[in-house]
Amino acid sequence: MKKIVVSLVGLVSILVLSACGKSSSSKDSGNRTFRTTAQTNVITVDPNRATDVGSYLAISQVVEGLYKQNNQGKIVPSIAKKIVRPTDNGKTYTFNLRRDAKWNDGSQVTASDFVASFRRQVEPKTKSQRAGHLSDILNYNAVNTGKASPSKLGVKALSKYKLQIKLSHPVPYYNSVIATQLYPINQRALAKWGNKYGQDSKHAASNGAYEIKDWNSSKDTWYLVKNKDYYDANKVDLKKIHFQVVKTPQTSMRLFQAKDIDETQISGSLVADAKKQFKSETVVSKYGQLAFIPWNNYRKTTRNLNLRRALSYAIDRESLAKNVLKDGSIPAQSVVPQGEVKDASGKDFNAGVTPKLTYNLTKARHYFKLAQQELGKQKISVQLLTADTDAYKAVAEYIQSQAKKVSPEFDLTVRSIPLQQEISDFSDHKFDAGTLGWSTDFPDPIDYLNLAAKAGVINFTKWTNAKYQKLIDQINDTTNQTPEKRVKLQQQAASLLNELQGVTPLYQYASVHLRTKDVKGLDYPLIGYQKYEYASWKK
């Protein structure tokens, strides 16, 4: 599950806010409803069809796969009895399933539920945008292109409670894929409901801690209710959770101030105010999302390496994070966020990345002069495309001001548009440079390094470099590859990207939440989503 990121939080009417807030403020923790906000609506809880952030969050609460992430982001067994060690040189995974796992209709979760789900997700007629999440499984390409039957996919039910997955190649981070991207479906419910499966709360199958209630894709409010058939139901303390979509952090802040909600996410300048007003209830966490500048390699001006270097050296990333964003974000050290992976010595990945992304106005001016000479013109004009959110606008204005410090001949203008239009313009190459965010669901740098690789999902510029691509190919050749060698290759790739500015990293997002002090166990991992099943009311 890879995501283009922009900060959005949703708005509901005052009538709805008042109604949901005051009615559940009882201090009786046994019946108290936990009230929170969501960034966007839930479109579906069909795990084979979800493509949006809202649906991913909901699915992670109501459907469980073989493994899952706990409240701190650690991978733990779920429907599988234990974390297994792959055989066949890392290509075959064999799982024994627990026998007490049930769907919310009372039927048992079996190995064939996983087989049916994977086949359905990959076969062409499903038209699943999530099909690629299973691309490492043996025969994926043949099945997904219709050249082979779904039965040829490398997944098999060896018995009712024994599942086998065969990969086409070893994947070092596959446990994370298993925990966040591989889900079963309730075959009996699917046969009964057909295309309605997962489209509203009446047709929502759950084998997780919660069921989704009072929901359809157009609703701005819904509930998660404790699933009595969940195998660990006795450990789930929050019995009922109310969600409402909120579009602005200002609205979120007001709701929390009024005690109409118990948790919400905020951003921007509100973070400083929140730390003063709600010192013990403001939670700032490092998050695995990175903001960066993609450059249009189809245009002569923005293809110029020295121009890209000039702008990169002009950006004081420390000041950008501390004085512009003011929300706990930290300066990027490379295209890979901090905290994702460590090297063989136990140091953070970025400790082994050189050159560093530094602020040096003298170097910026030097490279700008070189760009002028190479492009054969004094005035260089660049338009920076950005999403029309307060945070991205502030970042763009800061970059614009820094360009002016480089030279009065560096004419950098800003155009702010809705995110979807921005993505469309990127896809059609109708831009010079822009600002984007990217996040991942597995702790391996390759997903970020792919932002500048030939096969990268959002390498909008189609920037290529033979040396860089060779490193990417070596990283992807996982046969007989040690973890130490893999990290070193990735550090070399990140270093080269810093040097060549295929993309220009800016900052790593912070995850900032207001969270009532009445609850414990609700944490925010670097990758993935908070897990409400681990939260409980303080007695």
From TrEMBL:
Keywords: Peptide transport, Protein transport, Signal, Transport
Gene Ontology CC terms: ATP-binding cassette (ABC) transporter complex; cell envelope; periplasmic space
Signal peptide (from-to): 1-18
Compartment list: Cell envelope
Family as reported in the entry's similarity comment: Belongs to the bacterial solute-binding protein 5 family.
GO biological process, one term: peptide transport
Protein name per Swiss-Prot or TrEMBL: Oligopeptide ABC transporter substrate-binding protein
Source taxon at top rank: Bacteria
Principal subcellular localization: other
GO molecular function, a single term: peptide transmembrane transporter activity
InterPro entries: Peptide/Ni-bd, SBP_5, SBP_5_dom
Pfam families for the chain: SBP_bac_5 (PF00496)
Residues annotated as domain Solute-binding protein family: 74-454
SUPFAM superfamilies: Periplasmic binding protein-like II
Organism: Lentilactobacillus otakiensis DSM 19908 = JCM 15040
